[in-house]
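Students often ask why inverse folding is considered easier than folding. One informal answer: many sequences map to the same fold, so there is more than one right answer. In these notes we will look at a single instance of the problem. The structure comes first.
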């Protein structure tokens, strides 16, 4: 790229005049006061009034905000909404054509229709399979050691259940009551996905996955009580390499007493599998542990902040910020027969979800009480897929051992990767979880200097910008219709049209970037020798005419600046 790094960095700052409002990301982490949005930002990022009535979710959220005298954010506009909903539901970004079609659609129910469409898409299945594979520790290598064949079996099973929208209580029941080969009965890999196979190790992953609780905060007695339900679970190797059988081996005692986490007791006769009793207790509609955990986790995934936060660290000294809201979501899930898509749909259609990310308060409690949409950097997998789609490039993966590579097509999208052992330089740098514990905090969204240098000045980014089919197309269009080319660039990268100020800045940069043409006729008139003048004219034309790729270089620089903006890197 002819423009130097410093020039592009300056352009990135200049082009993003209105994007300073997205420093609310800094505000969220530091609780610094949010700057007052300029009028141009109002037009770019949010609407002045709501077009839908408040839902029950909204009434509960806004009632809590009123108690604390906190003003909620304005509604996000359609451009912000379409990008946000694509990222949150599918882990992908909308194309420029999809954005234009949505913005031009006058229907009042277009947001609800788009939510339904995306919830039924293959990309939804892929992205939410990724989320659940993080929670369920789907990983071939140390310290989980499911091995490649087990990973493929387990990931396919998880994906199938999400695609079929299996009731969540049945999903939990299938995992907790699984028996058989880890290669042939995929669900048993749940019990193999801990860092150990002891009853206490199993109790730890059960509590984390289905109760949102960490047993290191429990008393030893309570851990042992939960572990006793899994004390008859055994593991046996077979003659097939890495195959393991998970099975129930009844205790020799005629009768045994068990204590559930809520303190209630049960006596089981000899031969009975205590896992059945525990599972029946867990998924009972009156059990707050089960519904509270999944409702809080889903709220966290969609809103960026748990009602109980962290969302997988539920304990008495970590209360809900809005107990009435969490109770309502739990009741809705039970009433919907544990249909998770129904829960997604209700949250996504709410005003609370569709608020702007630009806060209208400097109150430190605004994020925890959902006074605005929480800014967060894109997941590593989502970001690299977007960059590779833009640049028409392919990610280079690696693994500690070569076995997993047998299962990966060369052009595999990163959000469809089954195995947590398979990674890349980019995924490691941008905080992809290791899947060693199943903790939500394994995924890292905090930016650092290595990420900034990669995006601004790496060879990989240079190649993507130079080889992008979108850049090639828009570079040709920029010769005759530069404003249209710049608008298309914004639509494809930021899912919106540029503001007037941004268009002027981009056009000025393009004009400055292109070499100025000299007045050859004036040169000729000053030269008395017509033959010499003609020769000079030809030389001047060759020397000063813009090169064929001058528009491409200008468009590349503008694209690079947009990609390095917080608006591209964050879901807002």
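Output (designed amino acids):
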């Amino acid at each position: 790229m002819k423009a130097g790094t410093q020039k592009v960095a300056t352009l990135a700052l200049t082009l993003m005049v209105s994007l300073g409002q997205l420093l609310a990301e800094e505000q969220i982490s530091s609780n610094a006061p949010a700057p007052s949005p300029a009028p141009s930002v109002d037009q770019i990022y949010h609407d002045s009034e709501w077009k839908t009535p408040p839902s029950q979710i909204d009434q509960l959220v806004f009632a809590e905000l009123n108690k604390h005298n906190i003003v909620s954010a304005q509604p996000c506009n359609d451009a912000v909404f379409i990008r946000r909903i694509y990222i949150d539901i599918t882990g992908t970004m909308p194309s420029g054509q999809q954005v234009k079609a949505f913005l031009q659609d006058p229907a009042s129910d277009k947001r609800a229709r788009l939510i339904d469409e995306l919830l039924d898409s293959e990309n939804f299945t892929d992205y939410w399979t990724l989320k659940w594979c993080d929670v369920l520790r789907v990983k071939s290598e140390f310290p989980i050691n499911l091995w490649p064949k087990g990973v493929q079996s387990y990931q396919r099973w998880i994906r199938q259940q999400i695609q079929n929208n299996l009731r969540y209580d049945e999903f939990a029941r299938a995992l907790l009551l699984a028996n058989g080969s880890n290669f042939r009965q995929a669900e048993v890999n749940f019990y193999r996905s801990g860092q150990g196979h002891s009853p206490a190790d199993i109790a730890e992953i059960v509590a984390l996955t289905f109760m949102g609780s960490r047993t290191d905060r429990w008393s030893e007695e309570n851990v042992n009580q939960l572990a006793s339900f899994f004390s008859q679970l055994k593991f046996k190797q077979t003659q097939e390499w890495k195959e393991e059988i998970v099975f129930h081996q009844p205790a020799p005692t005629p009768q045994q007493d068990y204590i559930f986490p809520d303190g209630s007791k049960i006596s089981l006769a000899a031969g009975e599998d205590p896992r059945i009793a525990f599972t029946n207790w867990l998924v009972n509609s009156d059990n707050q542990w089960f519904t509270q955990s999944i409702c809080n986790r889903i709220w966290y995934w969609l809103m960026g902040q748990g009602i109980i936060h962290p969302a997988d660290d539920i304990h008495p000294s970590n209360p809900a910020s809005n107990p009435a809201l969490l109770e309502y979501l739990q009741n809705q899930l039970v009433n919907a027969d544990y249909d998770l898509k129904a829960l997604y749909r209700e949250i996504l259609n709410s005003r609370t979800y569709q608020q702007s990310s630009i806060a209208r308060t400097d109150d430190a409690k605004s994020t925890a009480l959902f006074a605005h949409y929480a800014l967060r950097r894109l997941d590593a997998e989502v970001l690299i897929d977007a960059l590779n789609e833009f640049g028409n490039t392919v990610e280079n993966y690696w693994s500690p051992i070569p076995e997993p590579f047998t299962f990966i097509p060369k052009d595999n999208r990163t959000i469809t990767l089954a195995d947590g052992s398979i990674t890349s330089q980019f995924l490691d740098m941008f905080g992809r979880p290791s899947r060693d514990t199943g903790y939500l905090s394994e995924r890292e969204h905090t930016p650092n200097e290595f990420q900034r240098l990669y995006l601004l000045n790496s060879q990989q980014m240079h190649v993507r910008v130079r080889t992008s089919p979108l850049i090639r197309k828009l570079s040709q269009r920029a010769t005759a219709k530069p404003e249209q080319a710049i608008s298309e660039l914004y639509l494809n990268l930021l899912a919106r049209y540029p503001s007037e100020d941004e268009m002027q800045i981009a056009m000025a940069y393009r004009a400055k970037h292109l070499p100025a043409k000299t007045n050859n006729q004036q040169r000729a008139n000053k030269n008395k020798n017509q033959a010499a003048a003609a020769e000079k004219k030809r030389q001047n034309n060759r020397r000063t005419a813009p090169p064929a790729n001058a528009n491409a270089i200008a468009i590349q620089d503008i694209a690079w600046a947009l990609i390095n903006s917080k608006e591209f890197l964050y879901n807002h």
